[in-house]
Amino acid sequence: MKMRTFLVSDLAAVDKRTNTLSIFNIIGELNAESFPVIVPRLTVVMVFERKENEEEKQGVVLRIKQSGHKLFEAQITLDFQGKLVARSIVEIRALMVERSEPLVFQLLRNGRQIATYPVLLLAKAGIAEPKRETGSA
Predict the structure, then answer these.
(1) DSSP per-residue string spanning 56-103
(2) DSSP string covering 95-121
(3) Which of 26, 37, 43, 119 has CB 3.0 to 4.6 Å from 103, enough for a Cys bridge?
(4) For 2-122, which CATH superfamily applies?
(5) What pLDDT is recorded for position 134?
(6) What does the pLDDT read at residue 127?
(7) DSSP-based helix, strand, coil % in the chain, nearest 5
(8) CA end-to-end span of the chain, whole Å?
(9) In this structure, are strands 112-123 and 69-79 parallel, antiparallel, or unpaired?
(10) Which residues lie below 8 Å from residue 121, measured CB to CB, with a gap of 6+?
(11) pTM for the full model?
């Protein structure tokens, strides 16, 4: 089995009538006013291709790391259903990100990394951090 596509977007949809995959707003970087921040939605799009003699059901692991710390991990079972190409779309909601360091999306098979996709996290320039009040009134 080999990887055809591995990317992160805001949204992906499959048209039921035509089976066409549409990917909206491919993400290469995210901006935040401050950290930590909750990223409301990330959609991971994966397309795989297998040889005829390979199993129809295969497993992979999707992992998101930041500075070596695991933020997310999911086991994904691919079912080719008699075809040589399979897609998987994983929507992640409310991912908590602690700092402005790159997110690394990893795809693993049998414990070995088969693909990576980095997303840069940037603090918006010129935005002041909120002031924290201290002391008593």
Answers:
(1) SEEEEEEEEEETTEEEEEEEEEEE-TTSSEEEEEEEEEEEEE-SSS-E
(2) EEE-SSS-EEEEEEETTEEEEEEEEEE
(3) 119
(4) Macroglobulin (MG2) domain (2.60.40.1930)
(5) 54
(6) 46
(7) 0, 65, 35
(8) 65
(9) unpaired
(10) 29, 30, 32, 35, 97, 99, 100, 101, 102, 103
(11) 0.86
Decide if 36 contacts 99 (C-beta within 8 A): yes
C-alpha 126/C-alpha 105 separation (Å) is 29
Chain mean pLDDT for the chain = 91
Residue located via tokens 């790159």: 102
Token couple for 113: 């990394």
pLDDT digits (tens, 9 = 90+) for 56-115: 999 999 999 999 999 999 999 999 999 999 999 999 999 999 999 999 999 999 999 999
